[in-house]
Here is the input.
Amino acid sequence: VLSIPASAQTIFGTNLIVNSGAESGPGGSGASPAASVPGWTRTGGADVYSYGISLEVTDIVPVNPGNNYFSGGSQQANSSFSQTIGVATAASTIDGGGVTFDLSGYLGAYGEANVYASLSLAFFDANGAVISPGQGIQGVQSGGRANSVSGLYFARAIGAIPTGTRSLQVTL
Here is the structure.
């Protein structure tokens, strides 16, 4: 029987990403960026839009999509959102091996342009050194979408969390 410390139990089987669906806080208008994106650090023109700005709820989007979605904004090639997630409370379980992650999301792709989102997960030790640059998923490129339809397409990666991991960095 495996004994998991009580504090570690709270992180297993839950989404550890803060504001993973861009629903905390208002969306931007496309003309002016969202004032803040709770839980995330952003670079470049990264933004959160309300549906109706570039993507409509009639495009390919998840069922019950909410009010907002992440966007590359005005400088898509140089924009990102990131957040660091501490997992030190699960150190003994992670170091025992066999702990996995499930990185998934609906990632955007826009029209005929070969523009699509990617999401990556990196692993760090207690000193903040990179253990593994990690895994990543990406949206569907224009050639893989019927009629180059804009939308949010589901992508997923499952893998092992390296022993020694004490924090994760998610970058969108």
User: Anything to note?
Assistant: The helical segments are 6-9, 91-95. The first strand starts at residue 41 and ends at 43. The chain has a mean pLDDT of 83. The radius of gyration is 17 Å.
